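W.,

You were right to be curious about this one. When I first looked at the sequence I had no strong expectations either way, so I just let the prediction run and decided to look at it fresh. Below is the sequence, 461 residues in total, followed by the output.
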Amino acid sequence: MDRDVASLTRTAWTSLGGDPRALDVVAITGEGDLPSAFPVTDLGCATMGAAALAIAELAGMRGARLPSIAIDRRLASFWLKASIRPVGWKIPPTWGDIAGDYPTRDGWIKLHTNQPHHRAAALRVLGAPGDRAAVARAVATRAKAELEAAVVGEGGCAAEMRTIAEWAAHPQGQAIAAEPLVHVTPREAGAPLAFADDPARPLRGLRVLDLTRVLAGPVATRFLAGYGADVLRIDPPTWNEPPLVPEVTLGKHCALLDLRAPADRATFETLLRGAHVFVNGYRPGALDDLGYGAAERRRLAPGLVDVCLDAYGWTGPWSSRRGFDSLVQMSTGIAEAGMRWRRAEEPAPLPAQALDHATGYLVAAAVVRGVTQRVTNGGGLDARLSLARTAKFLTDAQGAPAITPLAPAVPADLAPDIEPTTWGPARRLAPPIAIVGAPMGWDRPASALGASPACWEEAIG
């Protein structure tokens, strides 16, 4: 394995409590890099490797040795961008009409306005009509720090562009620097977990209740579904993310529940009692406000493997701040470093939402390691991760990467079958991860949010 990838993989795996001796079974194949000031492809391969090691460890409990793992770095690079290829239809644009980077009077700011309520919050602060030119004029009159604070205070999402050094000196940057890459807390032991014994589908029969949205959590649960887990994604009735749903709902059932409505709360509690794993991407305190904090989840589902992720970390003054990958890149200095690396005149983010994807694979690894613990001794596990801590993992990588251009995608890179999604036929890239004896694959095509009833698979039929 390449030294840089090996170092990142070791850090990712051991942060989860993994045995470093297991790293010998991981091989990185192929060549090519996403162009960046940072080792983005290495990050993707390392976190995919950690997730695959967790699957191999679980599968290896049935045999004398861990199965071998291969990560294809070229395919991994493609998966960090998008895995789906529509046939005869188009995925909607990723960004809303006024979302993006704007110059202020003293620097740059990003407005994240893809959701209607975030868009409305930004426009209220700016006092501008909803067109890009008017927004640009209004932003240009403001100071970036003041505008960021005003938009966030109004319930919107924004981030001024900082340097890596400025972030390191910021109170939230300091808080993140003191956090582990993955917070892991073992919970009390109970009855060992038993589910289907299927070496080819190591997670078959595992019930995963998924309360995550854009984008890290859905990447995690897509990975789990790829090894047979029964993933049930729950969204509020008012939520949608059309550009991402075809990409990340692969292999999942998707239902809608209003956790403020008594009937839907009762349904949710039944689902939680039947779950082995709970993954959520709510800001700290948000589920507590709904009555489903960590203690209540453990009461309803003793032994639950409970994994949470957020944007800006679990300590510090920004721990409850809304955020997305692109905002965290602005805050932590990644976009500014990219701008200098490219000799550009505006912020230059990573060539993929790599913080989301990498965090997602770390979430998946934490889940599977928790499942292995439950199988072994019945103990539950809590884990917490954040995009900002993953950003530090990336920016701490030493030295500018040597970029080998990626060979363009070709038809041979696609899986052979047509995927009959809700929106029409599609092709999917071949999986970037290969575990001997346990091929990655999905039992259900991507589907719209709310396409399934809110019940576990055996009741769906």
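Here's what jumped out at me. The chain has a mean pLDDT of 94. And, maybe more interesting for your project: DSSP finds 18 helices and 16 strands in the chain.

Coffee later to discuss?

I.
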